[in-house]
Amino acid sequence: MNLILKIKSNKMKIKKKNKIYQGKSKIIYSTNNSDVLILKFKKDMSRLNGKYIKKFDNKDIINNKFNYYIMNKISSFNIKTHILSLLSDNQVIVKKLKMIPIEFVVRNYAYGSLLKRFLIKERSFINPPILEFFFKNDGLKDPMINEYHCISFNLISENHIKKIKKILYKINNILKDIFYKAELILVDFKLEFGLFNGDLFLGDEFSLDNSRVWDKNSFKKMDKDIFREQLNENVIESYKEVANRIGCLID
Ligand code: C5P
């Protein structure tokens, strides 16, 4: 039986063991199965690289359900993700991947760090979408890198980078469509990938913490920028509204 079917049918047999990593938005636990991890979403929201942190009730539950919903949509288009099964409101069981230390950003509209690097008008439409790579390294503040750095520094093979580029454009089309049907614009997003037995899988999470989503008509911000920019909106209500609008019902 493959790992997914095994976990689905033996959900109760996965036992949480030790905390192996605590990030800004998730805690990762090992389990009794060395191929499987548990991700526990946190209530924390951080800005200025973790210098300022605030807890929000329900944020852990919304992000877990939203991520699970989006990851399942993506896997329904034959893209492999690390998701195995929901464990609880704020926890999900995933495959243990060997993570690639690169953040992959796709941009459909100009916002965020792009505005600081290029003389481009804020909110302008980018066509074709821009794909950017950032080396995950806190000490170096995640510098932007290109395909040559990725390959020459052995961060990823040439073949995998080719595959990831294809997958990212496919995911962008799938997600743009889902959001557009809900009168929302997918501005940009960040994803991470990893390997399991040499195969590529989408890992980490997709949430409104690592994507930008605006209302299609008013261009109102509905993602973490509400918190980053200290806008006068309820960030959790906004996360909930986006989830509900795309059909991921949160009570
Ligand atoms: O800040 P920047 O404009 O480069 O961010 C692009 C996208 O990547 C945004 O959706 C942001 O939320 C996400 N991002 C992230 N983690 C980072 C940097 C950016 O999720 N470390």
Question: What tags apply to this protein structure?
Answer:
D-amino Acid Aminotransferase, Chain A, domain 1, binds cytidine-5'-monophosphate, five-stranded antiparallel sheet, globular, alpha+beta, 251 residues, Phosphorylase Kinase, domain 1, 2 domains
Word description of this protein:
By secondary structure, this protein is of the alpha+beta class. It folds into two domains: 3-96, Phosphorylase Kinase, domain 1; 99-246, ATP-grasp fold, B domain (D-amino Acid Aminotransferase, Chain A, domain 1). Helices cover 29% and strands 33% of the residues. The protein has helices spanning 3-9, 59-75, 113-117, 147-152, 158-181, 225-228, 235-245; strands spanning 16-22, 26-31, 36-41, 44-47, 52-55, 83-88, 91-95, 98-99, 102-109, 125-135, 144-145, 184-191, 193-196, 199-202, 211-215. The chain has a five-stranded antiparallel beta sheet with strand order 1-2-3-7-6. Strands 11-10-9-12-15 form a five-stranded antiparallel beta sheet. α2 runs parallel beside α7. The longest helix is centred in the C-terminal third of the chain and has 24 residues, at 158-181. 34% of the residues are buried. Residues 103, 105, 112-114, 142, 188-190, 210-212, 224 line the site of cytidine-5'-monophosphate (C5P).
